[in-house]
Amino acid sequence: MLGGWEISAIGIMETGQPLNINLGGPEGSNGLANATNRPNYSGSVSYPETVAQWFNPAAFSLPAAGQWGTLPKGAIRGPGRDNWNISLIKNFAFTEQRGLELRVESFNTFNHTQFNGVSTTYTSSNFGAVTSAFDPRVFQMGVKLHF
């Protein structure tokens, strides 16, 4: 009962991806087909990293009518991720060809809240707020019979 245990772990640690901040409404394309306009970059961006405000939206402003925004592409980063999936496996051998495998797996083992989406449309009412998160911790168990 004490021997024959296996453990398997997969860890992911990522920094946040660049966010594409854009304007909505009529300013969003400056009257050009398939164009995307960005807001002006008014100062340094702070990251409170809360659900209501991932980054400080006060660092942006609307460009003058017909002008393109000054925010460089990819200047703002989204949430990163720290995720661990761990499996614990026990094999029982009855004969050389017959056996039983018990498996317990957990996904997001340490149950860290991992934000996913952030509202990136400047004219949106929830601009800068977190809009989604990855799944919380999940456990699953399995039994496999070898014969």
Structure write-up:
It is a single chain. This protein has one domain (5-146). The protein is built from no helices and 8 strands. The strands form 3 sheets. A 4-stranded antiparallel beta sheet has the order 1-6-7-8, with no helix packed on it. A two-stranded antiparallel ribbon has the order 2-5. A two-stranded antiparallel ribbon has the order 3-4. The chain has strands at 5-14, 18-19, 40-41, 60-61, 76-77, 81-93, 99-107, 138-146. With 147 residues, it is mostly beta strands. The model has no long low-confidence stretch (mean pLDDT 91). It is 0% helix and 33% strand.
Q: Which structural traits does this protein have?
A:
0% helix; 147 residues; 8 strands; two-stranded antiparallel sheet; 4-stranded antiparallel beta sheet; mainly beta
Q: What would you say about this model in short?
A:
With 147 residues, the chain is mainly β.
Write the layout of secondary structure elements.
Elements lengths: L4 E10 L3 E2 L20 E2 L18 E2 L14 E2 L3 E13 L5 E9 L30 E9 L1
Antiparallel strand pairs: 1-6, 2-5, 3-4, 6-7, 7-8
